[in-house]
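Async update (no meeting this week)

Hi team, since we skipped the sync, here's where things stand on the single-chain job. The sequence we agreed to prioritize is pasted below, unchanged from the tracker. I ran it this morning and attached the output directly underneath so nobody has to dig for it. Comments welcome in thread, and please keep replies under the output.
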Amino acid sequence: MICKQMIVKILVPAVVAAGLCACRTAGTAVEKTPEPSMETTAESGINYMALVNKLNKLPDNWEEQLETVHMTNSMGGDVEVETKAYDAYLKLKEDLETDGVYVDLDNARRSVEAQQKIMDDFTKEYGADYAAKIVAEPGYSEHHTGLALDLYLIIDGKDVYLNEDMMQYPEIWSKIHAKLADYGFILRYLDGKEHITGYAYEPWHLRYIDDVDIAKKIMESGQTLEEYLGTAKSTELTVDLGASYLFTEEELTEAMIQVKCKFAAFDGCELSRLSYAGDECNTAENLEWISSMDENNEYVKVAEFLTDFHVSEDSKTTFNPGQDYKDYQWWLGYTKDGSWQLVSWGY
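Output:
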């Protein structure tokens, strides 16, 4: 193992869509937006299979061509959804209720303009570098499409909307996921596929693709949308968290997911191995070095991960096309409150 300070880039924490998820309660009134012209209807305008992620921007003129509805939940929150996606959601919701499963719609469309305003506000308040760490890049969020829907649960008449609380009901999410494809939805961010999607597992995040047959193929295959569309290969990934006296398996898994989510932005790169480098790199020297690279956090421990990956011939990165990279380093800092920040990567 090489524990050297030879990193060439400064990394950031996992990118978030700042402050724009407020799951609440059951939806009620529905109000349509003004009717679009024939040239801008959903049927003639948007591509329901469009891929929007950290590497693929929202298609041009998408927002002008989008037809949406607004629903108001019982807490007074407004949620905007693409018209056909909302109709399909209502059918899914009704079907789930026959099995005693109750859900509601928390979050759907978020405009590029709204995301840009958040970026501008954070940049003005904290500077461009900090804003880039905290706010998702405008134009690259699937929520811009109006086809991405976030659900939350209603259990015994009570709203369960916090992410950590919703994660406590895997059996309910399993029932929900089993019905998604019947209404043209897929589960978008799969467990274990973070290095492809760029996001951690979200059992509540659905994506409408308007084709039941294709939705069933994707769900039954266990593929991500990226894999189905051929923008990412379905390669086997070997994960080794090793043995640690400093961190629990859960803590190392959380760190690993941050690495995988960032790796998803490496265009045309296929990850084959990811491993924890071992406790011996948690030295005072490395901790001081990590802390000097991120003044916004106070770190108490440091961890290193190593990756192997292949670069495709058509990769748009600065890596050498066709080359295999071994033991590529990733460094994370562990804070007093028990959270990880991805600070640096490279040889």
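Quick observations from my side:
The chain has two domains: 27-229, 235-345.
The chain has twelve helices and 14 strands.
Reply here if anything looks off.
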